[in-house]
Design a protein that fits this description.
The protein is mainly alpha-helical. 49% of the residues lie in helices and 7% in strands. It is built from 28 helices and 14 strands. β12 (634-636) and β13 form a beta hairpin. α21 (536-549) packs across α22 (554-582). The termini are far apart. The model is unreliable at 1-11, 261-271 and 733-737 (pLDDT under 50).
């Protein structure tokens, strides 16, 4: 590449102003006593021990390896740039006019260094030896290189994300912004990448005003996934805890005996008479009818490869486990000839079985059918995997009903559960964690008010934790997509089918999607998929209490997102009903006349002949502006819409004795009598099903239960009347003709 040569003198550059600096001290990072310090002159900056780093931050992002930059001059540029981003108040950084005024997070700096190293390697490949040779064409070429995904032949096979493009555009911008700071090499003084446009604009980043790009979990995936997770949480919890304790005890026993006995195994084994001890142990197996332990298949294969006959009855027996239980670290092949007879006799009497889960407690299947052992006998690895599946089920429930971000889940610690009883029988559950997003190093301690299933999920994870020390990380850094894939495979396996679990179809599930799903379920569908398994009103109450307790906390952000979705939902519903009105599909119910008159008034404003001014409102946006006020009064019930325009007319508030409340009590709504309630075609299935079930109950009542019959008959007649009114109001003029 050709370009303007740099006027910067490489050979005579001065020492860096950061030379010899303790990076952590200058940046304000705290280290535990005795930890290694990080100095500017080192080629590897290891921030692993810095106090307050988020659990979610991977170890690779905590180590800044500058050796990935081959050129010594460019390596110095990389160090100075990262140091300046970490210490914006340093005397040589603060005067720079375009430098960042707030220190960047270590994780952000790790990403900047990674992209900067990639840029330098790209320059090396193109024969560029000085930053002074970088011009606008070079910047454009690098952005094009990072904009697309290329195969090994350089053919475009896809596009990178806007975030990747922005990171690529940020590199030359940062080099120019900190140009005066660099002592080893500098970009040309007249270089202005992309004419001064921001990296976000160059990368065509979304502006945030469009629809949230994170989509909710599909209903077909959410329903069986949540059902399986809740089933494991409720039915498997105590048994999984017991199984985990058995695994840990077996591991401790084996490790302890191996450590204490291995040194004496060779010389003292004969003096300890292993044959008699193992024979006595076999006698105990026969007396208790306790099967011998079966080896995993891969160990059997190893034995056969070493010369065992596949027809040998002892080829699948765990002889080492017998030896450890008898007090030896392993089973010596020299003992087998004298012990073969007792071993085969015991095997013929008691049989062989896997080590764990032999006497599993019976549970009811997920489909409510027969009872069966909660697990079949398992090898150790299978038992560990099953405990992990139950743990993943608890994580799914915790994430799905709390709305916590992944970073907030990973900050949970042993002892994070708190509960209080402000009134008899009323328990408030809290989880203590940290808010990481948008916060400085160390985060901010926060509390989440959650419902009982989320609290129990955290309790189960804590009980399954191998370290019960207060303050230990509860979940640590984990890959949810990997754990979920294992969970789905288990549910879809023979083990899940045996328990009556519905298979989970393919579909993308991650923690962001679960949070998004919760927000949409709370806002759009109070009777949706989540509500079929979790009492959604309890989640709404818990989230609201969390907001009230800490108005600036994480649950306030979740509630704000829910409220925004709820406003959008109401506008969409009102617009849809207005369009139905225009098509002749009218609402039914006591409040139908009021709503119809409102729609008629809006429709009149849209009539060109009746318009008092030349301007005519026609687009959906203009119509929504006219409908916004009424949309704010809409509250959704399971079988009606409540238009809460006048609290004094709300039947639910009159029945509750709270006529001045600012929200209706939808759970107490009697929509067939309330003057502010309407019924629409979407509510017909609910009323029709209610009428059908009531009719079945009436047929099952005896002749002597007259009072109950009269009550149910009135309820049945009301349901039929509502269905008839909906059908009559839904008949368009065209159909009537």
């Amino acid at each position: 590449m050709t370009g303007t040569s740099s006027a910067f003198a490489h050979s005579g550059h001065t020492a860096s102003p950061f030379a010899g600096t303790d990076v952590c001290e200058e940046a304000g990072f705290q280290l535990p006593a005795g930890a290694d310090r990080v100095f500017f002159d080192d080629d590897l900056w290891d921030f692993t021990d810095v106090i307050g780093l988020p659990v979610q931050m991977p170890l690779s992002a905590r180590r800044f390896d500058f050796t990935t930059v081959v050129s010594p001059d460019w390596r110095m540029v990389a160090k100075e740039l990262v140091m300046a981003m970490l210490t914006p108040s340093h005397p040589v950084v603060a005067p720079l006019p375009r430098a960042y005024r707030t220190a960047l997070h270590l994780w952000t700096c790790a990403g900047r260094l990674s992209e900067l190293s990639r840029f330098f390697r790209w320059l090396d490949a193109r024969g560029v030896t000085s930053l002074g040779q970088v011009n606008t064409e070079c910047c454009e070429a690098y952005l094009w290189h990072r904009r697309y995904v290329l195969d090994e032949n350089g053919t475009v096979v896809g596009s990178q994300s806007p975030a990747t493009r922005r990171a690529a555009a940020m590199v030359p911008v940062d080099l120019v912004n900190y140009r005066e700071l660099f002592t080893a090499d500098q970009p040309a003084s007249d270089l202005v990448p992309w004419g001064g446009a921001t990296p976000s604009a160059v990368a065509e980043m979304p502006n945030g005003r469009a629809e949230n790009k994170t989509q909710p979990v599909e209903d077909g995936v959410l329903q069986p996934m949540l059902a399986a997770a809740l089933y494991l949480l409720t039915a498997f919890s105590p048994h999984a805890i017991t199984l985990a304790e058995q695994i840990r005890e077996a591991d401790r026993l084996g490790a302890r005996k191996s450590r204490n006995i291995r040194r004496t195994q060779g010389r003292k084994a004969r003096a300890q008479d292993p044959e008699s001890k193992i024979t006595a142990l076999l006698a105990e197996h026969k007396q208790a009818s306790d099967p011998l332990t079966l080896l995993p298949d891969h160990h059997v294969t190893e034995r056969i490869a070493k010369g065992w006959s596949k027809h040998d009855p002892l080829v699948g027996i765990s002889l080492d486990l017998l030896a450890r239980r008898a007090g030896f670290s392993f089973f010596s092949p020299q003992w087998l000839p004298s012990l073969r007879g007792p071993l085969e006799e015991t095997l013929a009497t008691v049989g062989v079985q896997r080590e764990f889960g032999r006497h599993a407690v019976a549970v009811t299947a997920a489909d409510g059918g027969a009872t069966m052992p909660w697990t079949l006998p398992l090898h150790r690895q299978q038992a560990v995997a099953l405990v992990g599946i139950v743990r993943t089920a608890a994580v799914i429930v915790l994430a799905a009903v709390s709305g916590m971000r992944s970073s907030e889940l990973m900050e949970l610690k042993v002892g994070c559960r708190q509960s209080e009883e402000p009134a008899p029988g009323l328990i408030r559950y809290r989880l203590v964690s940290k808010v990481i997003k948008g916060q400085g190093l160390g985060g901010v301690v926060d509390e989440w008010v959650v419902i009982e299933p989320a609290y129990r999920a955290a309790e189960l994870i804590e009980r399954l934790h191998p370290v019960s020390t207060e303050g230990a990380s509860l979940l640590g850094r984990f890959a949810f997509d990997v754990r979920y894939r294992w969970f789905r495979n288990w549910v879809n396996s023979e083990a899940g089918a045996r328990l009556g679990l519905t298979p989970i179809p393919d579909g993308l599930v991650n923690l962001r999607r679960l949070r998004r799903t919760l927000a949409l379920e709370m806002a759009y569908r109070p009777g949706g998929v989540l509500a079929t398994k979790i009492h959604l009103k309890h989640i709404v109450v818990a989230t609201t209490e969390g907001y009230s307790s800490r108005p600036g906390g994480a649950q306030a952000e979740l509630l704000a997102e829910v409220n925004k979705h709820e406003s959008d939902r109401n506008l969409d519903l009102v617009l849809a009903e207005f369009r139905n009105y225009q098509e002749g599909i009218l609402p039914a119910g006591p409040g139908a006349r009021s709503l119809t008159e409102f729609f008629a008034g809006i429709d009149e404003k849209l009539d060109p002949a009746a318009a008092p001014a030349p301007k005519i409102q026609r687009s959906d946006r203009d119509v929504l502006n006219l409908l916004t006020k009424r949309a704010k009064t809409l509250h959704i019930g399971p079988a009606n819409f409540c238009w809460f325009t006048d609290p004094s007319r709300a039947l639910c508030l009159k029945l509750a004795g709270t006529p001045t409340a600012d929200r209706p009590l939808v759970g107490m709504c009697d929509s067939a009598r309330c003057p502010q309630a309407t019924h629409h075609p979407c509510h017909r299935p609910v009323w029709a099903e209610h009428a059908e079930r009531t009719e079945i109950f009436l047929g099952q009542l005896g002749t002597t239960r007259k009072t109950e019959r009269n009550r149910l008959q009135a309820d049945h007649d009301r349901a039929l009347r509502v269905v008839a009114e909906i059908d009559a109001a839904s008949t368009t003029d065209k159909e009537s003709a």
